[in-house]
């Protein structure tokens, strides 16, 4: 599959597996799973044909591991990033002492006042390293990388989760646990 088709398919899957499953007549099962056959049929109904092989290639090749197939290959899901109502069945996990969040500098004043909020999504997304945080943050404008004192948050009773693709998740990060840190190669 050419790169352009791969990107279009990834964006299509993100839209429908994270945000608008009803647009394809899908219902997210616990964990965010949907039957592959239902996804392919729904995509065909809206004029976006795909094959099981196309889907497998997107799942395998996505650099952020946004998607997963179950062990039988009959169900697919987005690993995190949902705004659609779904029980992701995440288990609490012990985070590393420090996590990171990449964002644009235009959001910094609001973050300093309110912290990191999940907004329309289920969780705030955090990274285990500055390089990943920077990659995410550069999509939104001039980069700022925030260091999250995850150890202090855990000690204060906050809960963290780890998605199947390694993204760390929290309900919110209050401003007192944040500090600006230099991005990688700064």
TrEMBL record:
The protein's organism comes out as: Urbifossiella limnaea
Name its GO BP terms in alphabetical order: tRNA splicing, via endonucleolytic cleavage and ligation
Indicate whether NAD appears among the record's keywords.
Answer: yes
A GO molecular function for this record?
A: NAD+ poly-ADP-ribosyltransferase activity
- Family as reported in the entry's similarity comment: Belongs to the KptA/TPT1 family.
Pfam families with a match to the protein in the record: PTS_2-RNA
Q: What is this protein called?
A: Probable RNA 2'-phosphotransferase
The record's keywords, sorted A to Z, are: NAD, Transferase
Protein function: Removes the 2'-phosphate from RNA via an intermediate in which the phosphate is ADP-ribosylated by NAD followed by a presumed transesterification to release the RNA and generate ADP-ribose 1''-2''-cyclic phosphate (APPR>P). May function as an ADP-ribosylase.
Which HAMAP family would you find in this protein's record? KptA
| EC code | 2.7.1.-
């Amino acid at each position: 599959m050419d790169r352009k088709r791969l990107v279009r398919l990834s964006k299509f899957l993100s839209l429908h597996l994270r945000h608008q499953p009803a647009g394809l007549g899908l219902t997210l099962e616990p964990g965010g799973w949907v039957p592959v056959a239902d996804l392919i049929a729904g995509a065909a109904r809206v004029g976006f044909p795909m094959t099981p092989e196309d889907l497998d290639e997107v799942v395998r090749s996505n650099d952020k591991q946004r998607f997963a197939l179950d062990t039988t290959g009959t169900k697919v899901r987005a690993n995190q990033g949902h705004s659609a109502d779904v029980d992701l069945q995440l288990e609490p996990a012990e985070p590393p002492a420090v996590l990171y969040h990449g964002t644009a500098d235009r959001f910094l004043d609001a973050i300093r006042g309110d912290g990191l909020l999940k907004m329309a999504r289920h969780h705030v997304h955090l990274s285990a390293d500055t390089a990943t945080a920077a990659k995410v943050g550069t999509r939104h404008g001039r980069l700022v990388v925030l260091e999250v004192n995850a150890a202090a948050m855990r000690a204060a009773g906050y809960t963290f989760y780890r998605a199947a693709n390694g993204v760390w998740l929290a309900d919110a990060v209050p401003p007192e646990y944040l500090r600006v840190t230099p991005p990688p190669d700064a």
